[in-house]
């Protein structure tokens, strides 16, 4: 509307269809309710239970969660077959993808209706199976975390940001972390730890964890929304990297070159994408490639996260991941699927 793309009459019609409300009874007879509150399991359950009594008998419920498993959230709804995930991306008006997450009890009818809804609002749908972080958040987070790991190791923060952009990503990992907010990352990690503990499991530690903790609890720098993160945001001026970053995370004398940083930032995303395919979270190679480009901005000229592996050459990719694992840890371990593909001279198709 602000861009003047609607006529006065069209603007009036659209605004008349919007009803801001704090009363769940205003959801009466809604065919679709999309919950989009903070990533907190109990809060989401509360909102779900408040909305359910007022929905249409034929309606279905969706959560816009970016990380919490849909099957778990569906337990707060009386009809888990009518519960699904609809993961939108920020900013919603610009990002084209919607990740549709099918829970363990989601019916085919609910899936079809969700798919039709996404098409009706002119977005690109991909369908994935339930998993913590699903596909997009799970892989996207590896880019952010690897950038933080590089910083924690003592790599130059400006070089880290430059490597991300040089790789073809829309923005460097530190700037991206500021946009997400470090507090949200910490909250998601804590929620994940609590959920896994309840299942008798442990969340693997990551080098990024110490960086997040230090920035929040020692320096009170939580991200752009709080006025300070890895960047400073002076009023009326362009943002710039916090000048004390290199003091907080002292620079190494044997710095990595840009190509090695790029390899780490790109390979970690591709490896996690393969794991999602291997585990059945992804249903197709096409969904993986489309989701990576339109979901979090994987470089379009690389054709998507799995096409990136094809173009690099599967055997060469496996050799490189083995090298990265030896240098930087088990998060770069080669998925079994890739080893099998390399030995059989296969590609993703």
From TrEMBL:
InterPro entries per the UniProt record, alphabetical: 3-OHacyl-CoA_DH_NAD-bd, 3HC_DH_C, 6-PGluconate_DH-like_C_sf, FA_oxidation_alpha_subunit, NAD(P)-bd_dom_sf
EC id: 1.1.1.35, 4.2.1.17, 5.1.2.3
Pfam family, one: 3HCDH_N
UniProt entry tagged with the keyword Isomerase: yes
Keywords, ordered alphabetically: Isomerase, Lyase, Oxidoreductase
GO molecular function: 3-hydroxybutyryl-CoA epimerase activity; enoyl-CoA hydratase activity; long-chain (3S)-3-hydroxyacyl-CoA dehydrogenase (NAD+) activity; NAD+ binding
Keyword Chloroplast found: no
Domain 3-hydroxyacyl-CoA dehydrogenase NAD binding, chain residue ranges per copy: 2-130
Gene Ontology BP annotations: fatty acid beta-oxidation
SUPFAM superfamilies associated with the record: 6-phosphogluconate dehydrogenase C-terminal domain-like, NAD(P)-binding Rossmann-fold domains
Every 3-hydroxyacyl-CoA dehydrogenase C-terminal domain range: 133-233
Annotated signal peptide: none
Protein name: Enoyl-CoA hydratase [isoleucine degradation] / 3-hydroxyacyl-CoA dehydrogenase / 3-hydroxybutyryl-CoA epimerase
Source organism of the structure: hydrothermal vent metagenome
């Amino acid at each position: 509307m602000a861009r003047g793309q609607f006529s006065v009459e069209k603007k009036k019609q659209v605004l008349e269809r919007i009803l801001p409300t704090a009363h769940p009874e205003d959801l009466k007879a809604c065919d679709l309710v999309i919950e989009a509150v903070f990533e907190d399991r109990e809060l989401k359950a509360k909102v779900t239970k408040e909305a359910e009594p007022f929905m249409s008998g034929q309606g279905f419920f969706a959560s816009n969660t970016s990380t919490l498993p849909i099957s778990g959230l569906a337990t707060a709804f009386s009809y888990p077959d009518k519960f699904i995930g609809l993961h939108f991306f920020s900013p919603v008006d610009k990002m084209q993808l919607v990740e549709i997450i099918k829970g363990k009890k989601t019916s085919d009818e609910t899936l079809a209706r969700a798919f039709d809804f996404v098409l009706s609002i002119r977005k690109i749908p991909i369908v994935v199976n339930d998993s913590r972080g699903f596909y997009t958040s799970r892989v996207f987070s590896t880019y952010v975390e690897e950038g933080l790991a590089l910083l924690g190791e003592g790599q130059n923060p400006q070089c880290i940001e430059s490597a991300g952009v040089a790789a073809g990503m829309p923005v460097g990992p530190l700037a991206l972390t500021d946009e997400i907010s470090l507090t949200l990352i910490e909250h998601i990690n804590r929620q994940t730890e609590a959920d896994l503990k309840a299942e008798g499991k442990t969340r693997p530690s990551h080098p990024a964890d110490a960086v997040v903790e230090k920035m929040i609890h020692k320096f009170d720098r939580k991200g752009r929304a709080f006025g300070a993160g890895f960047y400073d945001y002076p009023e009326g001026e362009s943002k710039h990297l916090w000048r004390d970053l290199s003091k907080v995370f002292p620079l190494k004398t044997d710095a990595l070159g840009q190509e090695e940083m790029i390899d780490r930032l790109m390979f970690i995303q591709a490896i996690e994408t393969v794991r999602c395919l291997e585990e059945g979270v992804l249903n197709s190679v096409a969904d993986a490639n489309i989701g990576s480009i339109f979901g979090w901005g994987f470089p379009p000229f690389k054709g998507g996260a799995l096409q990136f592996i094809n173009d690099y050459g599967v055997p060469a990719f496996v050799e490189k991941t083995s090298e990265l694992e030896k240098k930087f840890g088990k998060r770069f371990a080669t998925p079994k699927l890739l080893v099998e593909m390399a030995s059989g001279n296969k590609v993703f198709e």
